[in-house]
Structures are given as C-alpha cells and as structure tokens.
Amino acid sequence: MTTFADLGLSQKVLSAVTDAGYTIPTPIQAGAIPFALERRDICGIAQTGTGKTASFVLPMLSLLEKGRARARMPRTLILEPTRELAAQVAENFEKYGKNHRLNVALLIGGVSFEDQDRKLERGADVLICTPGRLLDHFERGKLLMSGVEILVIDEADRMLDMGFIPDIERIAKMIPFTRQTLFFSATMPPEIQKLADRFLQNPERIEVAKPASAAKTVTQRFVASHSKDYEKRAVLRELVRAQTELKNAIIFCNRKKDVADLFRSLERHGFSVGALHGDMDQRSRTMMLQSFRDGNLQLLVASDVAARGLDIPDVSHVFNFDVPIHSEDYVHRIGRTGRAGRSGAAFTLVTKRDTKFVDAIEKLIGEKIEWQSGDLNSLPPAEESKDERPRRNSRERGGRDDRGEKDRGRGRGGRGAAGHKSDNDVQDNGVDVIQAAPVKADIVKNERKAEQKPQNNARNNRPYPANDDSRDRRRHRDHDDGPTPVGFGDDIPAFMLIAGSAKV
DNA sequence: AAAAAAG
C-alpha cells in the first residue's frame, strides 16, 4: 500500500505529516503529489472531504525548500473563492509547514491592509488570496508577480464561473507562463474544463471519484413543503426537532436575506443558531464559523459562502432550506457532512416550484433521492387562512404599526420578542439544544452601520440589516412565531432570552 | 435566478 513516504515528499514535510497522525494518503493525494513534485501541471478532481488541500500544500512545501522569497515578490500563489476557505488553507500551511521557515501571507478582503503589507514587504513564499484583495494590493504597487513559480486555483469550477473569470484571467496574465499551474475541483463540467485548459499546459488529469457523486456515507432525503417561507420554516423546525442524532447542522438558503430571516426566526424559537453570509462583516463571519466549529452553536444558517470546501470535521446534518438552483451546489452543500468517512444526513425542503431543480439534482448525482414522508402529491392542502389566531393590536406589538416605513426598523433588529416564552411549539422538541453562545458579533451590513442608532448591543449586532423587517414577514408572524409577549417591546433583556432557551 | 469577491 502506498504511504506518504512513497510519494517523494521531503523529510521535513513527511515528519509534519506523521506528527499530524497521517500515514496513508487519500487517492487524490497519492495521485497528485508525485506529479506536482515533478513540476507538472495538474487538473485534480475529487469530491469534497477527500484531502484535496493537502495534495497541493504538501508538494508546495517540498518544492519551496529550495530558494528564498524576496521582498514583494511572492514565490507561489493560491487563489480561493471565499475568505474562509483562504484562511483554512493558510492553517494547513501552518500545520504542515511547522518544520519550515516559510513566510505565508493571507490576502483577503474585509480586514486591514497593514499586516498584509508587512508580510509582503518581508517576502512571501506563499500567498493565499481571494482575487479582489490580491488585485487591490497589486494596483497599489505592493506586489510583483514576476517571481511566481506555482499558481494554484482551488475550487476551480467556482473560480472559473461568470463572476470570477475576469479577475482570474487578469491575475493569470501577470504570472510568467513558465509557472506550474495546479487546478483542483470537486466537479469539472465540460465548459469549465474548456476554460481550465487555457490556463494549463499538458496537465496530468487526476480524477479519483466520479465527479459530482455524493459521499456514500450521507443519507439523503427530500422533504415536501408548501412554498411560503413561514410554512417552510415550520417544516424545518419540525424536521430539526425530529432528528435523534443531530449533533450540529448547516442550513443552507439561496439568498442572503433568507439566511438573515431564517436565522432570526430560529433564534426566536430558542435554537442555538448562528448565521454566515457574505454581507456580514468579516469579524462576525469569523466568529460565527469559529463558534460553530467549537460546538458553541448547534445550527449555522448559511448562504453558499459555506457550501464549498469548509472543513468542519463533525457536521452531522445538512438541511437545504432552499433547493440549490445549480445542481453542483447541491453536491457541495451536502459535502459538508459525512466528511472523512463519517456518516451524515442531508435533508432538502422541496416545494412545487422546485421540481425542475430536483430533477437536475437527481440527474447529476445519478440516483433517485427518497422522500422523507410522502412526496409533493401527498402534501395536505395548504392552510387556508392566516387569521385563525386573533391578531394583536398595535400597542401589544410595541406600537410598531404606528411607525412609518422609514422609521421602521431603524436601529432595531426587528427581532420582535422572545416568542418562545409562550409558544408551546418551541422547546418541546427533545432536541438537545445547546445553549445559545454569548456570541455577540458585529453582523450588520457594513454600509448600514452608519445609520444604526447605538442601542443595546444585544440588538445592534445581528446578521441582518436593521431595517429589513419587511411587511411580508410581519404579516405572517402569527404563523411563524406565535403570540409575542407583551411588555418588553423590543427590549427583552438578554438573560430572559437565555432562560427561555435553556428549558428543554 | 443567486452568491461570491475590493472598498
């Protein structure tokens, strides 16, 4: 059997790999590393959770042992589609490069330039970047690309799609054509392959699993739901509560606004939940992800910013609140669970509107996905009226209806109140809800920050813009959240929220 | 039809 020692890696790298507890490479690692060490171009395709990152990090470390970086002239460059992924790759360099003295610089947006400038000035052996910030540094003249020997494009299918391709082409043009180029991706559709071939020279193609095949250890189910958001939220809550082995879960939405809405709803229902999407400030993104990794948050509502590559070792469940429009994203999303041979479960809420996306997903993964309890046809008719429960008058609702459109929600999270205090369907769930962590991050959209009135921080720091409390949501509040307790308005003391969610 | 990536 092939071991890491057979692949031609340097002693320093091998000893770090051994210290990390690995002896047997994954197929993508065994396939790619020898060619990478020969300075061949590589097109590596493997499903998520199979060790793609190490298959370029390890050979790069070996190759970098010869030579030294000069100021502002990085020797290698790695491009990543999200900041979190870039940070994760940087951690890999720390881990496997502990016997080296290499300068690794992480160039991502949303954080200050100063540290990054210093590292560039010192001479970076490895530059790990998101495209925008790299170009920003370049335009400021902080960077010379003429010394780059290795270019890695990770999540290549993502990096070569419509939004990213102009940046990638610009960057690739700045780098000498004598470079070595490594492509890694979980999926590689033909039109992307065609683009990729423009960047690669006589690449060695290493494909270790059928592209787009979901990890075998993941149990996949569809769950029929009516289309309205509040109906979907109710279905989701029931689904989450019904899971007996739910350790933690990522819940994907297609839109950032829906991430914010669903987060808010789940939080109000007493779940231990965080949120992650690209309009949150970087500090909050980092904190949310860290809390989820640490187990301080049980649920993470996320956009597709979290769909790819994020390595959270023990995610037990993935829920798709929305069916992903691009079927490849389905594969990426459910790839967050069942990693490294563990078992996992992936549930996808499906409404009538989603049927064609569902078909595309089944076609892509080449199998039929079972319905959890009856398909769309067996769904009971939609609830007729939203007015079965008595509506509260505006004073009980904190007088919100008296506020004009402009005023509404300004500086207010619109979080209503702790609906679960009187809501019988909130905590009778048998789910081991981890206590909501005291994560209070600055999560409001940056551009909205200025217009925030400083209020108490429990409300100011939310993953949604303060003024997105739409009429539509408010209309359905009774369905979603039950009666709002009277008396506090929006000013529920934090300890009460905690007390509410502690009861199981 | 959406997210991500610069500020």
From TrEMBL:
Residues 238-387 form the Helicase C-terminal domain. GO terms for molecular function: ATP binding; hydrolase activity; nucleic acid binding; RNA helicase activity. Residues 383-410, 442-452, 468-482 have a biased composition (Basic and acidic residues). PROSITE patterns: DEAD_ATP_HELICASE, HELICASE_ATP_BIND_1, HELICASE_CTER, Q_MOTIF. Residues 456-467 have a biased composition (Low complexity). Residues 2-30 form the DEAD-box RNA helicase Q domain. It is an enzyme of class 3 (hydrolase). CDD domains: DEADc (cd00268), SF2_C_DEAD (cd18787). Residues 374-492 are annotated as: Disordered. Gene3D superfamilies: P-loop containing nucleotide triphosphate hydrolases. This is DEAD-box ATP-dependent RNA helicase RhpA. It comes from Rhizobium vallis.
